[in-house]
Every structure is written in structure tokens, then in C-alpha cells.
Amino acid sequence: MYTLDRRSMLKQLSLGTIAMLAPSAFHLAKAQTMGSLKGNIRHSVCRWTFSHLSLPELCGLVKTIGFSAVDLVGPKDWPILKMHEIDSSMCNGAEIGLTKGWNDPQYHPTLIKNYLEHIELVSKAGYKNLICFTGNRRGMDNEVGLKNCVDGLKKIMSHAERHGVVLHMEILNSRIDHLDYMADSSDWAFELCKRIDSPNMKMLFDIYHVQINEGDIIRRLRKCTPYIGHYHTGGVPGRGEITEGQELNYRAIMKSIHATGFQGYVAQEFSPSGTTPEEKASSLKRAVLLCDV
């Protein structure tokens, strides 16, 4: 959760410049700039996977590779993105957490307050996408949890629609990484979006998580196309690099995504290999080139 109040945050976001330290740990100027990307896939990268870099350093790396978006960044860091002309491709900060979410009505008052405020912040900043989570089951039936999510999210949908903000329910696997999480299948997320019936409610189709819980990635993404607003990548098993050392054919997956006419972002969300910043930067470059169909 962010600590600044809404008025202070809006004032901060309106500033044209901010003071920051110049990158020093990672000399991005020495990196070789890649050729132009094809433009069929809109690339992004999740902030947490490159936490060894400062955000300004990550912005520099992203621009060196040839794209201009970073995922999972909250309001306090948006001014840095703006200074570097980098899009906040999936905003966060309104959620309580992964285990306490929209499937439990006891959290609705807090979530509704958080999301109403955050929707305005996202819109004011000129961004579009905002993440959300179901929370864990804790013995709750899937249908009950689905109904609870629909009831809660519908209370904020008109606000999201007015402000042009799209909410994205992320699918997470419940077999390995997020035991007991409710939105652990593409079918469940599909039904959620169908019942809410708003262009401002989508699913975040995390390819890594869907592979672990369901598999059959290409058929599932084709089926879910009307309700997919965003993708995350990750090698299976282990959320490592997406190269030949893991079980998914990301080249084929990206071609299938492009064939559906998808216009949103595909964000890299894997743990980069290597021990030095330069080696980890090379991991991101490899992944982007692999997905640039």
C-alpha cells in the first residue's frame, strides 16, 4: 500500500521533473542497442524481477533493448517512469495482498475504497491497467467465491469505466506457488469476466501459472481471447528464463497471441540468470527477442 494521501499523490504526479541519482551500479551506456523490434508484440517487464537495478537503471535497460514499459509499479514510482518516458503497463498498489481479495466480502469495504482512489490515480497519470486478486479459498466453494467477486467488483466498475481504467484479475497457480488461491484456472477467470460483462474487466493470463495448473496454453488463450487484457511469461518449472531449458515453446505461443489480434502488453516475468547486472540484462534481451515474432 502507498502512504501518500490522494491529494499529495496527484500533486506529485503533476510535477514535470524530480530529483534522482544517476545510475552508477550498471553502466547502461556501454550496452549495445538492439535493432528495431517488429512491433507485433508490445513488450514489458515486471519490476520485481530486476530488483537488483534501481528503477532509473531498469528504465535505461528497457530503452536500450527497444521497448518502453514496466509492469507492477505503484504510484510513488510513476514520476520516475514518466521522466524516462516509460509506460506503467500494469499498475498495482490498490490490492490488500494475494491471499486477501475480492472473493471474501469482509475485505470489500477496504478494497472498494482502495480501488476507487487508485482508479483515479491511474487515470490521472495517463495509465490504463490495474491489477486485482481473488484471495485464497479458505474452504470457500468456487461458485460462492465467484459470486462474491462479481458483487464486489461491480461496485467499482462504473467508476473504472468513467475513468478509462481496466481491471485485470490475475490467474495464479494453486499447485506450487500460491496454494489455495481461488482464480487458479482460465475457465474461472473467463466466467468472472463474462458475468461482470464490462470492457473494463479482463483477466491477466499468466502463461507460467496457467501451464502449471492447466497446460494446453495455446487452445486456452484462443478460447479466452475476448477477456484477456494482459500476459505474463515465465519458464516452467521454476519461473526461470523462457529459453529451451524449460518446457514451453514461447515462440509458438507468441505467434498464437499475435494471431488473435491481441493489442495489449506481454510482460516478461522470470528470474534472470547470471550473477552480474550485464548477464541479467542479456537474459532480458534474449527473452524479448524470442517473443518478438
From TrEMBL:
Taxonomic superkingdom: Bacteria
InterPro entries from the UniProt entry: Sugar_Epim/Isomerase (IPR050417), TAT_signal (IPR006311), Xyl_isomerase-like_sf (IPR036237), Xyl_isomerase-like_TIM-brl (IPR013022)
Gene3D superfamilies cross-referenced by the UniProt entry: Divalent-metal-dependent TIM barrel enzymes
Keywords: Isomerase
Domain named Xylose isomerase-like TIM barrel: residues: 112-280
PANTHER family, sorted: ISOMERASE, XYLOSE ISOMERASE DOMAIN PROTEIN TIM BARREL
Protein name: TIM barrel protein
Provenance organism: Undibacterium amnicola
